[in-house]
Amino acid sequence: MTDTTDTTLNTKGITIKRTAVTFNTDTDSPVEALRPIDLDIAPGDFIALVGPSGCGKSTLLNVLAGFIKPTSGSALVGDEPITKPDIDHGVVFQDYALFPWLNVIDNVAFGLERQGIGKQERYARALDNLDMVGLKDSAYKKVTELSGGMKQRVAIARVFATDPSIILMDEPFGALDALTRRFLQHQLLEIWQKNRKTVVFVTHSVQEAVYLANRVIVMTARPGRIKLDHRIELDYPRDFASSEFRTLEKLVYDQLDEELAKTFSLEGGQGYSGD
Amino acid sequence: MKSAAKPFGSSIVPFIYASLFIVTVWQLVVTFTNAHVALLPPPLLTAETFFELIISGELFVHTGASLGRVVAAWVLSAVVAIPLGLAMGRFMRFERVMDPLIELFRPISPLAWIPLAILWFGIGETGKIFIIFIATFFPILLNTVSGVKGVDPVLIRAGQVLGCDTDRALFTKVILPAAMPTIVVGLRISFGTGWAAIIAAELVAAQVGLGYLIADGMEILRSDLVLVGMITIGILGVLIDAVFRILNNRFAWGS
Ligand SMILES: Nc1ncnc2c1ncn2[C@@H]1O[C@H](COP(=O)(O)OP(=O)(O)OP(=O)(O)O)[C@@H](O)[C@H]1O
Ligand SMILES: [Mg+2]
User: Fold this and answer.
1) Whose CA is nearest to atom 24 of ligand 1?
2) Nearest to A47 by CA among A168, A129, A140, A149
3) Is residue A126 part of a domain?
4) Ligand 1 center to residue B161 CA distance, Å?
5) Is A101's CB within 8 Å of B163's CB?
6) Which of residues A163, A183, A211 is at a domain's end?
7) Which among A57, A62, A218 is the best mutation to test ligand 1's pocket, defined by most ligand atoms within 8 Å of the CB?
8) Are residues A149 and A196 in the same domain?
9) For a pocket test of ligand 1, which of A55, A205, A263 has the largest count of ligand atoms closer than 8 A to its C-beta?
10) Of A22, A69, A84, A165, which is most buried with the most CB atoms under 10 A?
11) A195 within a domain of the structure (yes/no)
12) Where residue A270 falls among pLDDT bands split at 50, 70, 90?
């Protein structure tokens, strides 16, 4: 295999400094979603974020994307504080968020147009990125004609097209069937290994986390804090069946189980033990 | 494009059946009740009148006049209601101010405006267009508001992270296209309500138009003219709706 790694990579680290989020609701008492969190993410890291439902994973990602402002603390990409959504901070959404009034190639070229790139170059780059996810032939299809897996591949092509320095993904494969999911995991890894962008990937699947990431972070039940921060040194592509893989999976599961128990005893109240 | 042609072709068939059914019932009623021609002329006689009016060109004059009024009022409505609706959908404060006003005006039928329309604008074209304007305004406004407010927030976020860094860019690149299908539905519905209000508008001292044809037919005891006017309104209503549906399909990425 030839090394296609580009030397002018756009990839940056992320620094999360004492970042906390409390939601003020008009009806209920304030919801503390994130306890002050500190995290340093190196450029080119692939972080998997796992934790019980409602622990604040999406909240953290939304802070990094600039969709919500932290109640306290700050987060930086490179040396720049995150203040608002930015085309340099790519996001892949769980439900694809493709623009249904545009066809596939115009979806991928959307950000490039906003960057002021001319039509010819825009389309050429969009096609390259579609090719990367194996969808060059669908460039002129309507997005409503695509399957869920194809839609998410278009969304991946769209986020890589603008060459952002970080990519945030919130359960991007959560809505897909197991086979499609495996295929996309594989494809994402290949792309990431080529361009080494910093990825923060939220998932509910421990297997997915251990398969993809070089650093897995387990969050506690709400209010979210960091429970486990573990580097995964296994070589890619990883073997689900290997004993090393299994051991790592178990390590993550054990941490997660403790937190899940907390979540359920909180939600179940007295009814849980009474059953 | 194949898929667009098929529903259109197959949607015509039910109308043919419905027409046959109506004509049959109509003929049966005439035969069995021995209705007076002045009250209910048989279908055949009505058809004759219909073709006479077509050949003389009179029907086109009336239809053209009515259509012209509806189109003028509807365009005017769109020009006012769409920007207003966009602003209301976008700015919550503005909507909160406008909403009670609109809720108060909305239940008032266009018919109720006839006296004021005459007082304010006299019996010329302006009054008629005003009545149809009232009839077409609210469907466009309400659909535009709900179109803008109904834009999937995830699409807005997607727009933001893909470089729509100003309100203006976000609005033209994401919100407007996302709201478009709902706005087009509003335009379609309002053309229908405007077309249905043509009689009310032309009831007042019109010299031409389908409403005039109907009112005049009643005065000179020519029910066949009344029926021709009614049938023309019905058929055109369906045709116009069909045209809008085709237009709608072009924006039908939503469902
Ligand atoms: N806009 C909001 N207003 C009030 N509370 C919110 C808001 N957004 C999230 N929350 C609350 O903050 C907590 C964390 O939510 P978040 O969506 O970050 O969880 P999550 O870890 O992504 O969960 P899941 O795995 O189910 O997606 C939850 O208790 C949630 O109800
Ligand atoms: Mg979430």
Assistant:
1) A53
2) A168
3) yes
4) 21
5) no
6) A163
7) A57
8) no
9) A55
10) A165
11) yes
12) very low
Which chain B residues have a beta carbon less than 8 Å from that of A66? 160-161
Give the end of a domain, one of A163, A193, A213: A163
Does residue A73 have a pLDDT over 80?
yes
Give the mean pLDDT of A55-63: 95
Query: Which domains can be identified in chain B, with CATH numbers?
Result: 60-253 (1.10.3720.10)
DSSP B38: T
Number of domains comprising chain A: 2
> Is residue A129 a part of any domain in this protein?
yes
Instruction: Please give the Cα distance from A141 to A157 (Å, whole number).
Output: 15
Q: Are A208 and A271 contained in the same domain?
A: yes
- Using only the alpha carbons of chain A, give its radius of gyration: 19
Instruction: Note whether A13 and A27 are same-domain residues.
Output: yes
CB atoms within 10 A of CB A201: 26
Query: Would A213 be classed as within a structural domain?
Result: yes
Q: What is the mean pLDDT of chain A?
A: 90
CA atoms of A9 and A209, how far apart (whole Å): 24
ipTM associated with this complex: 0.89
Same domain, A157 and A253: no
CB contact under 8 A, B154 and A90: no
Residue A3 is predicted with a pLDDT of 44
Length of chain A: 275
Ranges of chain B whose pLDDT falls below 70? 1-10, 251-255
Smallest CA–CA separation between A211 and chain B, in Å? 27
Q: Give pTM, 2 decimals.
A: 0.85
Q: How many CB atoms lie within 10 A of CB A21?
A: 24
Q: How far is the CA of A242 from the centre of ligand 1 (A)?
A: 35
3-state class of A246 per DSSP?
Answer: helix
Q: Which residues contact A35 (CB under 8 A, 6 or more apart)?
A: A20, A223, A224, A225
- Domain carrying residue A141: 99-163
Is A76 in the same domain as A189? yes
pLDDT (0 to 100) of residue B251: 66
Q: Which ligand is nearest the CA of A204, by number?
A: 1
pLDDT value of position A77: 95
Per-residue burial over A86-105, b = 16 or more CB atoms within 10 Å of its CB, e = otherwise: bbbbbbbbbbbbbbbbbbbb
Q: Does residue A274 surpass a pLDDT of 80?
A: no
Q: What is the pLDDT of residues A214-226, one digit of tens each?
A: 999 999 988 889 9
Peptide bond into B139 cis (omega under 30): no
